[in-house]
Amino acid sequence: MEKLPKIALPVIFVVIVLIILLAKSAVTIGSGQAGVLYKTFDNGVVTDAPPLGEGFHVIAPWNKVIIYEVRQQELFEKMKVLSSNGLEIQIDASAWYEPVYDQLGNLHQSLGEGYLQRVIQPAIRSAARSVIGRYTPDDLYSTKRDAIQVEIYEETKKILDKQYVQLNEVLVRDVTLPPTIKEAIERKLKQEQESLEYEFRLVTAEKEAEKVIIEAKGKADANKILSASLTDKILQDKGIEATIKLAESPNSKVIVIGSGDSGMPIILGNQ
Fold first, then answer.
1. Residues 64 and 31 reside in one and the same domain
2. Based on the domain organization, do 17 and 45 belong to the same domain?
3. Which pLDDT band holds residue 265 (cuts at 50, 70, 90)?
4. Which DSSP string corresponds to the chain?
5. Same-domain check for residues 191 and 225
6. Which range of residues forms the domain containing residue 114?
């Protein structure tokens, strides 16, 4: 019985050591995360195997795991850039990005956990300055904003594709112009709108005038053709036809044949 404590102490010590080793060897990776394995005695960062996925993992106690967020994340940037004519413009933009999952080891080895500050922010700022520098404030204020947004996305993506980062979208949320420039652009747009309305009224009035002229010309041509076709003989024939119809009518009347102009009948009624 006296020997029991001497045996129990080493056992307890081994159990404690095992618990410590197990605690250091166990890694739990949360939802939307992935782990990069670092092997202390074997070439460091593992780049030739997929990262550790979500869940519980056991690793050698002398190795370690660096955990990364692999879900889509958002970077919000306020940038002051120059337009093509040298005016300072403020751009509020958002970038949606995520690390390339299968290249997480390379990302960690080349850029580390601070890859947002090392590559993403410089890339979007550089692209924004390059793109905005090709446009005037008028372009930024009007319909060119969507095109500018696409160009910033494409230029940023070219940079990040080489850095193991996937860019999903760039959104230009707001463009702030100097107050005097904004007012000048608004006045210009208002004048252009008024000019377009005036031109529309002129075109409408011109078309209406053309329509009246065409209708009048048509009537004149019709009357000219009708006058040319109505000879004395035709008028006499028409008069005779009318006389016959009136003679057949039950209404009381007196018809004097050949007493009117050109030998046309004269009709005397009871009124």
1. yes
2. yes
3. low
4. -TTHHHHHHHHHHHHHHHHHHHHHHEEEE-TTEEEEEEETTTTEE--SSPPB-SEEEE--TT-EEEEEE-S-EEEEEEEEEE-TTS-EEEEEEEEEEEE-GGGHHHHHHHT-TTHIIIIIHHHHHHHHHHHHTTS-HHHHHTTTHHHHHHHHHHHHHHHHGGGTEEEEEEEEEEEE--HHHHHHHHHHHHHHHHHHHHHHHHHHHHHHHHHHHHHHHHHHHHHHHHHHH--HHHHHHHHHHHHHHHHTSSS-EEEETT-SGGG--EEEE--
5. yes
6. 73-177
1 pLDDT above the threshold of 50: no
List pLDDT tens digits, range 222-237.
667 766 665 666 656 6
Tell me: do 169 and 185 sit in the same domain: no
Q: What rounded mean pLDDT belongs to the chain?
A: 78
Query: What local confidence, expressed as pLDDT, does residue 18 receive?
Result: 55
Question: How high is the pLDDT of residue 95?
Answer: 94
